[in-house]
Amino acid sequence: MSDPRTADGLYAVVGARLDAEPHGGQGSGAWDVLAARVDPAEYRPRLREDIEVKTFRLRWGNDYSMIANPTDLVHYQVRPEDAELLPLMDGTRTVKDIVVGRLQESGDLSVDGVADLVRQLRVGNFLTDPFVDVTGIVRRAANPVSRTRAKAREFVTTLSVDWSGAHRLVEFLYRHVLRFFFLPAVLAVSVVVAVLGLVAFVAVYRSGRFDLGGGSAAAQTLILLGMDYVLTFLHELGHAVVLVHHGRKVKSAGFMIYFGSPAFYVEASDSLMLERGQRIAESFAGPFAELVVSAFASIFIWAFPDSPLAPFLFTWAVINYFVIFLNLVPLLELDGYFILADLIQVPDLRPRSLQFIRYDLWRKLRGRERITKQEVGLALYGFVGVAFTIFCLYTSVFFWETIFGGLIRELWNGGVVGRAFLLALGLFVAGPLLRGGIALVRSVVRKVRGVIDSVRFRLQTRWRIEAAELIDGSQLFDDVPEDVLSDLAGRVALKRYPAGKPVFRQGDRPEAFYVVRRGTLQVVEEDPDTGKERVIATLARGDTFGELGLIDGAPRSATVRPVDEAHLFEVDESTFDRLLSEMVNVPEFEPTLQQAAELRSLPPFASMGSTEVPLLLEHGEWLNVAPGDVLVEQGDAGDAFYVIGSGRVEVIQDEEVIRTQGPGSYFGEIALLMDVPRTATVAATTPTRVFRIDREGFEQVLAGVFRRGVLAPAVTVGRTSQH
Amino acid sequence: MDCWHCRKTAVGACRFCGRGICADHVETLPYILELFRTNDVPQALVVEDALYCGACTPRPDPLSLPELDEGV
User: Fold this and answer.
1) Would you tell me the crossing angle of helices A95-106 and A111-123 to the nearest 10 degrees?
2) Cβ–Cβ < 8 Å for A327, A336
3) Among partner residues B30, B35, B68, which is closest to A142 by beta-carbon distance?
4) Quick check: helix, strand or coil at residue A146?
5) What is the pTM of this model?
6) In terms of CB atoms within 10 Å, which end of chain A has fewer, N or C?
7) How far is CA A6 from CA A10, A93, A100, B30, B42, in A?
8) Do A138 and B30 touch (CB under 8 A)?
9) Would you state the pLDDT for residue A660?
10) Residue range B18-38: mean pLDDT, rounded
11) Which residue in chain B is spatially nearest to A6 when comparing CA positions?
């Protein structure tokens, strides 16, 4: 045999294998092997042994789980029910087995969620099979960039320089010095010092002996800046050392330009694996380190007010306490916010509140809908947060002008050299603002372009063809005659929805039907009593939604919200009605929609998208069973899976009734997994309607979903850095 | 040949699957033309911007096929 490591060798092996007679019967040929290997449903994921999983139970029911890859420090936030699947990923089960396992456990046939989770885990190197991105490797190899140049490029584009070796330094400092600060006695002394320092500062401030003195000498102001950076460094070290104390890792640290000011930062994504109390301690450690250091300055001023250093230290202390105050106020997304979010157990407090006041509040007020207590809290936090941010921007400008105004004036009056230095300093500090301005202009230009594109788009027919293709490709519309399809496509509108803006909300009157052109959307069901939300489906390109509301006229049963910017083809109610009335002449269309609605009302199929439901309908059938009729006989070969739509059945084992089952429950799934005889008899006790899907159909539905293509990301990583 | 996406006349064919693509829908991906080893380091001759239709899914990671060795 030739060397399989060379291209010729590989092709020779494949060629010889393809030429060889298949052996072992069906499924052993080279193409069958290949087909099985590329089928995601047949993939056997195996979680790496060092992967950590933690589930966080929160007061409001918004539980979540974190998965950590400790080697690469990659963290995924997933739903607890997804995390429960992880122990099943031991290399013995296929993705399909895991899906069916979930069905048995929870009654939820959420196939795309499982496939997506496995895909994300693979890419994040959480599985034993290492993910090798050949395309990325080739791209990087084709455009080699030196390390220095890469760093320079990183700084220009992100205004930050990252250092991945920070953990070693923090660990060294912790082992030799900083670990003593975690001793109760040392910690208590630190707290006393911090409190005494604050008291001393208030006493000095109230004495009126010092003021901020805008006319500080330039050199003194520069020293002040340098000391401020030292303090920021200690602040970040505070965060990092708590991480290390709890056995976590600092992913990286670095230097960045943050709101125009040079600053240090720590990439603390590993804190997502800490317990709530530890996370609060980690968030507080930064400001606490500043409090302790500032305390020494305050006590010094209080003890030696006549010292020449006192006015300088007073200014420094004022800056420090102002920064500490900003850090601890929970209305800005700084340490205080994370402490509050952990305390009240709402990890996404800020984005949720902003999203609520931006989109949902006005609709609720207009519609005079009931606003829950939690929503009142969100609205209050959102409004106060926005007002405080504006207030902070205003006071910051005033504050910094008071502190550094003297420096600016001195430099301006300091001749050419001074002015050149001021210009350089201005560019350095105002650079990010300039960048922000450029980004704003770009954004406006993009929006204007978008409007022009939109007008141009309306004048073109290209996207209407695209809409027609998507509608034609949809299982719901496969029976629509070409002229009706053409009419429908001519009346669709193209709508763009930014991430988070609901297309419609649960309880809304149905007004349109939608086809996803671009983007990912989540179908979210909200419990009207508790306000708790549950993602029941994820929609991607080609998926349709909203048709059921138009058919039965009932209010929307769920909210549909884009995960990223979504482009939707919208068919308004009158057009849809006109299409439907015309479709009366087309047999099977209306019943298909009704069946889809009926099927979706069954819990195991509730989270199925518009692509899967027609597949189920194609491969399954509804059966009406009279009382006493036997659906499954103990000892028979298993060949189908049943879900009860209405009525009741009893499960009989060895002539003894072991349980009864009602609407929404199911039986017979074991037969789809294993070739074992039926373990019990199932007979109807009332007129019963069941949906029956055979083994082949079930396999095809699952495979169909898995092969659908790119699935929506269901994982997000929350806070990643501390500033 | 027509474009897979919009049925306009295609200007090229996807290097990975052969679907037709028009100028509006054309995308590019690196394509490995030849693989070889020099001093035991894998080397590749690459077309950086081979035509890609955007419809097929070239897998970014290699696939293990130990079964191909059987019986050869």
Assistant:
1) 130
2) yes
3) B30
4) coil
5) 0.65
6) N
7) 6, 33, 41, 20, 9
8) yes
9) 85
10) 88
11) B36
Residue closest to A645 by CA, chosen among A602, A600, A605, A614: A602
According to the model, what pLDDT value does residue A186 have?
Answer: 93
**Position A709 pLDDT exceeds 50:** no
Looking at beta carbons, which pairs linking A397-405 to residues 24 or more positions away fall under 8 Å?
Answer: A399/A322, A401/A214, A402/A212, A402/A214, A403/A212, A403/A214, A403/A216, A403/A221, A403/A224, A403/A315, A403/A318, A403/A319, A404/A221, A405/A214
pLDDT reported for residue A175: 94
Residues of chain B positioned with their CB less than 8 A from the CB of A131? 61
List A residues 455-484 in contact with B (Cβ-Cβ < 8 A).
462, 465-466
Exposure letters A175-190 (e unless 16+ CB within 10 A, then b): eeebeebeeeeeeeeb
- Decide if pLDDT at A273 tops 60: yes
Contacts of A134 in chain B (CB under 8 A): 32, 60-62
Contacts of A553 (CB under 8 A, 6+ apart): A510
Please compute, for residue A38, the number of CA atoms within 13 A of its CA located in the half-sphere on the CB side. Answer: 14
Q: What is the pLDDT of residue A587?
A: 37
ipTM metric = 0.73
A20 interfaces chain B, CB cutoff of 8 Å? yes
- List of residues 6+ apart from A481 with CB closer than 8 A: A586
C-alpha to C-alpha distance for B44 and A449, rounded to whole angstroms = 41
Mean pLDDT of A61-85: 89
CA distance B14 to chain A (A): 16
Q: What mean pLDDT comes out for the span A308-329?
A: 88
pLDDT digits (tens, 9 = 90+) for A411-424: 777 778 778 877 77
Residue in A closest to B37 by C-alpha? A6
Write down the pLDDT at residue A584.
Answer: 36
What's the pLDDT tens digit per position in A620-656? 888 888 888 888 888 887 778 888 888 888 888 888 8
Tokens of A624: 């009406």
**Closest residue to A709, CB basis, from B35, B57, B67:** B57
Strand partners, A721: A267
Q: E-assigned strands of A166-299? A: 252-258, 261-267
Q: Does B59 touch chain A (CB under 8 A)?
A: yes
> What Cα–Cα distance (Å) separates residue A683 from each residue in A13, A53, A71, A171, A669?
55, 42, 54, 66, 16
